Each structure stands twice: as C-alpha cells, then as structure tokens.
Amino acid sequence: MTVFPKNFLWGGATAANQYEGAWDVDGKGVSTADLLLGGTYEKPRVFTKTVKQGEYYPSHQGSDFYHHYKEDIKLLAGMGYKTYRLSVAWTRIFPNGDDAQPNQKGLDFYRNVFEECHKYGIEPLVTISHYEMPYHLTEAYGGWGNRKVIDFYVKYAKTLFTEYKDLVKYWLTFNEINIGMMFGGYMSLGLPVEDGAAPFNPKMSNDDIQANLQGLHHQFVASALAVKIGHKINSDNMIGCMIAGNVNYPLTSNPDDILKAQLANEINNYYCGDVQVRGAYPHFAKRFWDEHDVKLDITAEDSEVLKEGTVDFYSFSYYSSNALTTDESKADAAGNFSTGVKNPYLKYSEWGWAMDPKGLRWYLNDVYGRYGIPIMVVENGLGARDEVKADGSIDDDYRIEYLKGHIEQMKEAIKDGVDLIGYTPWGCIDLVSAGTGQMAKRYGFVYVNRDDNEEGDFSRTPKKSYYWYKKVIASDGEDL
Ligand code: BGP
Predict the structure, then answer these.
(1) Does the beta carbon of 244 lie inside 6 Å of ligand 1?
(2) Residue 76, C-beta contacts closer than 8 angstroms, at least 6 positions apart
(3) Least packed by Cβ within 10 Å: which of 301, 308, 317, 363?
C-alpha cells in the first residue's frame, strides 16, 4: 500500500498567457495580460494601454505552446502524467469578451489540445480564467468593477462546458482569486489602471480596497453561477476554487504577532475560501469592511447564488510562507506574497521566496480542517536559473530537492487524514514568469531554449528533474 491513493492525480500546470505565445493569431483578441511589459528582477512589470509591437517580449511569444502542443503533451505523457492543468485564453474564444459568437479557431485549438491529452490518458484540468480577460471588457465596461462582466464570463464558461463536455471534467473558475484583493486588481480583476502603473500594488488606499472587493464580489457571483451551470451541463463535472495559499506564521509568541498572523490568514485565505466553499462571507468580513470604509453592493439574489454555487473541491498554489510581526524595527519584507519579515528557520530562493515544505503540511491540514472537501495542490515549485551544460544536460538538483521536500510533506498530510487528490507543480515546461515577465525564472521539468534576449529556437530538453518526477509518479510517490 502506498500513502498516495492509487488514482492520485499526478501532473503539472501552465497558464495560457505565460505559455502559449501566438498572442494575436487565428482571431485571438487582445487580453489584459498582453499589455503588460516585461519587468526585471528589480523592477515590476508595468501596464500600457496600447500595443507597441516588439515591446512585449517574452509574453507575446511565451514558450510557443500554440505550435508545440503535440510535442509538449507527449513530453508530459513521458513522465506518466495523469492530469495536466492548463488555462483557456478567454480572448481565443471571445476576442472582445462581448462578442455574439465564439471564435471557431479558438474552440478548435483547445479541442485539439484536449484530444491530444486523452490520447495519452491525461485528464485535462482547466482554469477558465488565469490572470487575464479580454482587454475590451476593461476599456468598455471597467473590468470586474462592472456587474455586466458577470454575464460575459458566464457565457464564456457555459461555452466551454458545452463545447468540451466530452473532454473535460475538472475545472477551476479563477486562478488565485484572492490575489486581486491582496495586491491590486489589474492582473486578475481587469480594473482600469493608469498607463504605466505596476500590476502588483501592495499599498492600496481604501478606495482601491473598495474597488477590488466589489470586483471580487462580482467574480464570486460569476464563479458560483458557473458552478451551477457546469453541474447542469454535466453532472460529472468537478469544479473547484483556486486560492493563492498564504501561510502566515507569527514571528514570535507575542500575542500581538499571533493576532496579526491570524488576521492575515483570515483575510488572505478564508475570505475567498469561505465564500466559494461555504457559500457565504465569513464572520470577520464586516469588521474588515468597516475599518476600510468599504460598502459592498451585495444583492439578496447574489447571496442566494453564492449559497447554491459552492465548489466541489478546494485547490491552491503553494510556494512559500511568511513570518509576521508587529515589531516595525524588524520590517525587512521578504518573500513573494509577503508583507512580513525574514523567518530565521528557513532558506530563501534567489527571488527571495522562503522555502518551507512544512508550511504546505500546515496549510493542507488547516484548510481541510476548515472545509472538509477534497483538495488539490495545483501549483508548487522553485523558480530558478538553469544552466545548460556543454553536453546539453541540465542538472537541476535544487529543484528536485525542493519538490521532494514538498511531496514528503504532502505524504505527511495524507497520513494526518487530509483528502488530497492531486498535485500539479507549476510551469512543468518552462514558461514566462508572471511576476517578473521573464524567461530566466524557470520552473520546468523540461527546458525551453529561449532567453530574455529573444534568442533560442524554442526546442525542448528534459532536465534531470524530468526523470526524477517520472520515477516519483511511477512509484506513486514512494521513490523520492
Ligand atoms: C502564481 C501564478 C502563476 C505563476 C506562479 C509563479 O501566483 O498563478 O501564474 O506564474 O505564481 O510566479 P512567478 O511566475 O512570478 O515566479
């Protein structure tokens, strides 16, 4: 008997706007993600309102999955994948978002991709919206700030459920739905921002918080409606939420630190999780709204829909943890989603993200204890610079070590009693990083020959971790 259940969904994950490339072919419209300039290690990505040809490398080309999907899915099958998480680009299906009819070429592309997956017995897990939406919806309607956008999303989701009824059973309504409220809404909420504004903005004013939370509320309603429709179209559909898993520890046993960490976990994780899993806002929401002068427009009908459209499973991304303190003299912000301080017990990646496998066990137990529904870890991994050796090989032992540590902790969580049903590490084939817009920050088991200077022929090479992960899957997580 292995610890991981026999039908465990081993796999990997990507997202359209970071991976597909071909941003303007076959009728695809301009998405919000297409208007983000690439950043650097030090400088965040910035938004621009007009497409300036040539300035959007590498995101406009990604890893060119659009033209490599057969080869890529074969590589995933070579590792023994049971599932592959990918997103559909909304703008391939509805180029402007409010179009009367879907774009047939976009529908055909994903049908081909899903059929290719099934050729190898790989179950697609589809994110309906991953950090992007048609740009036209932000220009003409104000993005998720406008209730009308709910209808456009629902029409889009309904089109996918209907079109791929025979091919897709696992769905996620929105990627990291909590990110907009944590960092500002451009990437996930399509809220209008000034030309040049950075998409991640941790210093939000009360007005921004109001706008973000209202946009988020519209997304909640859209998600719940999609769940209801998805179940009606196919009662076998399993539709999940996707939360950026935010593990917040108190830096010390000072009760102030403990309360601060508790509040961070409540706001960053349970605010969204509770609405999507339990169907209602949590007890602490009202105080948070009052303290930030937020007045949400929530209709009686919305509340009914939220109750009826709860998800079938809980999924989340996990990369890192935060340590929090009220002691301002210790403020040396570290980590990806962190507003916290350095945790002296952990090592940090080159990008300043704390590496904390045990945080994953903590989070799994925490959310399972709260919700009691099946859980999937749909993103996890180490962003690193890989070096191609003279003989062409890539020895990414650091990545193996990172993933091994996390799989060991998932095992512990299963022994603890958590109903964990799947694991899809992030960027299984190298792709463009969302935060920096770079190719240099790689996550893959497969190397893509393309760099930040537009050099490389997009050829694919399995890294050392490819063969390691293949062994992990073949042994159901026993041979690490
Ligand atoms: C998550 C996103 C992904 C992804 C990942 C890694 O938040 O859902 O899209 O990119 O983070 O982040 P980065 O690419 O910035 O290293």
Answers:
(1) yes
(2) 11, 12, 84, 120, 122, 428, 429
(3) 301
239, containing H or E segment: strand 238-244
Atom of ligand 1 nearest to the CA of 175: 8
- The SS3 assignment for 274 reads helix
Ligand 1 contact, 123 CB (< 6 A)? no
Query: Residues near 116 by Cβ (< 8 Å), separated by ≥ 6?
Result: 69, 70, 73
Residue 21 backbone zone (phi > 0: left; psi -120 to 50: alpha; other: beta): left
Query: Ligand 1, closest atom to CA 381?
Result: 6
Nearest to 21 by CA among 54, 66, 51: 66
Tell me which residue has its CA closest to atom 4 in ligand 1. 434
Convert 58-123 into a string of H (helix), E (strand) and C (coil): CCCCCCCHHHHHHHHHHHHHHCCCCEEEEECCHHHHCCCCCCCCCCHHHHHHHHHHHHHHHHCCCE
What is the token pair recorded at 430?
Answer: 């190298």
Half-sphere exposure for 85 (CA within 13 Å, toward CB): 34
Those residues with Cβ within 8 angstroms of residue 475's Cβ, 6 or more apart along the chain or in another chain: 2
- Provide the β-strand partners of residue 460: 448
H-helix or E-strand containing 421? strand 420-423
- Residue closest via CA to ligand 1's atom 16 equals 433
ipTM above 0.95, yes or no: yes
Rounded Cα–Cα distance for residues 43 and 283 (Å)? 38
Strand partners, 440: none
Q: What percent of the chain has pLDDT over 70?
A: 96
441 C-beta closer than 6 A to ligand 1: yes
What is the enclosing helix (H) or strand (E) of 447?
A: strand 446-448
Per-residue pLDDT tens for 370-397? 999 999 999 999 999 999 999 999 999 9
DSSP assignments along 350-405, one per residue: TTS-EE-HHHHHHHHHHHHHHH-S-EEEEE----B-----TTS----HHHHHHHHH
DSSP 241-267: EEEE--EEEESSS-HHHHHHHHHHHII
Q: Is 147 helix (H, G, I), strand (E, B) or coil?
A: coil
pTM of the full predicted structure? 0.96
User: Euclidean distance between the first and final Cα of the chain, in Å?
Assistant: 16
- Residues in Cβ contact with 251 at an 8 Å cutoff, skipping those fewer than 6 apart: 257, 323, 324, 325, 327, 330, 340, 341, 343
Question: Would you state the pLDDT for residue 331?
Answer: 63
Does residue 335 carry a pLDDT above 60?
no
Distances (CA, A) of 72 to 81, 112, 317, 428, 440: 12, 13, 22, 10, 20
